[in-house]
Amino acid sequence: MVMRKRFTGVAIRGLALAISTTAFAQDPHEATRYRVNANTVFMAGGSVGATYHALANDIALVTSDDKLRVVSVTTSSGVQNVRDLVYLRGIDLALTNARNLNGFLASGEFGPDLKRQIVYIAPLTTEEMHVLAQPEIGSLEDLRGKRVSFHIAGSSSASAGTHIFQALGISVQVFNFPQPEAIEKMRRRELDATVCICVKLVPAYVGLGPGTGFKFIEVPYPRALETEFLPSKITAEEYPNLLPKGSAVQTVALVTLLVTRNWPKGSVRYNRNARFVEAFFSRFEEFLKPPRQSSWRTVNLAGKVRGWQRFAPAQEWLDRDEREAANRLRTDFDKFLEERAKRTGAQSAADRERLFRKFQEWRRGN
User: Fold this and answer.
1) Cα→Cα distances 111→106, 107, 309, 336, Å
2) What does the pLDDT read at residue 27?
3) pLDDT at residue 317 in the model
4) CA dist 250 to 128, 201, 233, Å?
5) Domain housing 161
6) Which residues of the chain have pLDDT under 50?
C-alpha cells in the first residue's frame, strides 16, 4: 500500500510536469512571460507624493531596460516596506532607514536573526527632522505635554520622531495627521507642532506664508542619537518663507536605505538583485541630471550603515570600482611623470613611488 501511494505521487507529479511542458510548448507567449518575470524586480517605495515614492520612481526609470525591469510599488511607509520585504511574495527591494530596522530588531518581530535576513545595498538621501511649531514655542522642551502630530501612523516621522522625543525625555500628546491636515489644525490652534522627517523641501511647508508665525524649532544632537542619526540643518535658502535671511536651524537627519533580503548566493532572486546592483551603480551619474530629484547629489553610495551588512554583489561592485579608480589614478600619475621627465630628467623608481604616495595623501586631504 505504501509503495502504491508513493508510485501514485510520482506519477501525478510526472503528469503535471508533462502537462506544464506541453502547455509551455503550445503557448507562444509562455517563453516571453517567463523571461519578463525572470528579469523584473519589485521595489517597495512609498505613498504617492512622498519622498520614497519619488526616489523609487527615479530608480525604476534609470535602471530599467530591455534586460532588467524595475517596478516601483506604491506603499504606505518605510516601516511597512520592511514587513513587505520579509512577508510579501514578489518584493525584492525596499526603501527604509536604520531607525526602522533597529526598531524591528528590538521588537523581535522577525526573530533574533534580522541582521542575517536583511542587508543593505546603499545609503541614499538624508531625511531631515522638521519640527514646525506655533509662534510661542521656543524649543522642544516647550512642547512638553503639548499636542504634536507625527505625520501618518507607521511613517518614519511617526516611528523615528516619537523615538527622538523619548530619547530626549520629552513627553508629548501624540497625534498622526498628514502634513497639510496638521498645518490646518495648527491654524485652528488644535495642534502645537507638527513633525516631518522628510527630504527637503517639504511641499506643505514651502507654500506657507510668513504671516502664519509658524517657525522651525532646533533639534539637539545628544550622544543617544549618534548611532542612527546625523547632525544636519534647515536653512533660510531652503525655506525663505519660514526663516530669516541667512539663518539656519540645527536638526538631525536619517539616511534613506535601499535594502534587500539576504538571498542565498546563486539563487534566482540573488542573481536578479545582482543584475539590479550592476545597473544601479554603473548608471548612477544619470541620477545627478534633471529631471531626477536634486537630493541624489548628496548620496554617497560607498557610505556604511553601522551594525548592518551590505549585500555581497554591492560590496563587490564597490571594491572593484575602487581598484579600477586606483589603477586609473596610477596610470594618469605615471603619464604626468613621463611628461615631467622630458623637462627635468628621469627619476628613480623609489622617487616615483615616494611622489605617488605624497600625491595620494594630498588627494585625500582635498
Assistant:
1) 10, 9, 17, 56
2) 74
3) 97
4) 10, 16, 4
5) 126-255
6) 1-7, 9-10
